Amino acid sequence: MFLDADNIFLPKDFLKNLLYRFKKRNLGSASFPIYPNGKRVDTFVYWIYNLWVKLSQRFLPHATNGVLVKREVHQKMGGFDEKIKIAEDHEYVRRAKKYGKFGFIKIKPVLTSSRRLDKDGRIKTYLRYILAGTWMFFFGPIKSDIFKYRFDFIEK
After folding, report:
1. This prediction's pTM
2. Tens-of-pLDDT digits for all 156 residues of the chain?
3. Domains parsed from the chain with CATH numbers
4. What pairing do the DSSP bridges indicate for beta strands 102-104 and 34-36?
5. Which candidate, 133, 126, 107, 112, places its Cα nearest to that of 36?
6. What does the DSSP 8-state code read for residue 109?
C-alpha cells in the first residue's frame, strides 16, 4: 500500500475493510475515496472526483493519495516512474492494470489535508489537476515541470 503524506485520517478498520474488498473482487490494484479537510466547495469537488473515479475505473483508472497493489503486480511493472512530475499515481495504476484488474473500492473515505489548496489557492490547484489529467489523456505521463507541481511542499 502506498499512501500520500497528505493523508491525515484513516477510518476505523480501514485496512481490514479495504483488504477484504480487494481480495473479494480479485483486484491487482485499487484506490478508494478521499476527501479534504477543507471547505464545503472542496468536499463537493472531491465528491465529483470520487464519482468520476468510480465511473471510469474499468477504462481509465485513477488513484490519488492512496494505492493498494499486489506485490507481484508492483514488481512486474517496475514500481513508480520517478521521472514523472505530477499524477504519478494515475500513471502507476494505468500501468498496473496491464497486470491485474483495477478497482475503486467504496469504503469510508480517507481524510486528506487541504494545505495545498489553502496555500496555492483552490482555483489554481484544481485547474492544475484538470489540465494535468487532460495532458495525460492525450500525451501520456508528465515528465517535464510544465505544471510547476511541488512534492516537497512544506506547511509553515
Report:
1. 0.87
2. 999 888 999 999 999 999 999 999 999 999 999 999 989 999 999 999 999 999 999 999 999 889 999 999 999 999 999 999 888 999 999 999 999 999 999 999 999 999 889 988 999 999 999 999 999 999 999 898 877 666 555 444
3. 2-139 (3.90.550.10)
4. unpaired
5. 112
6. P
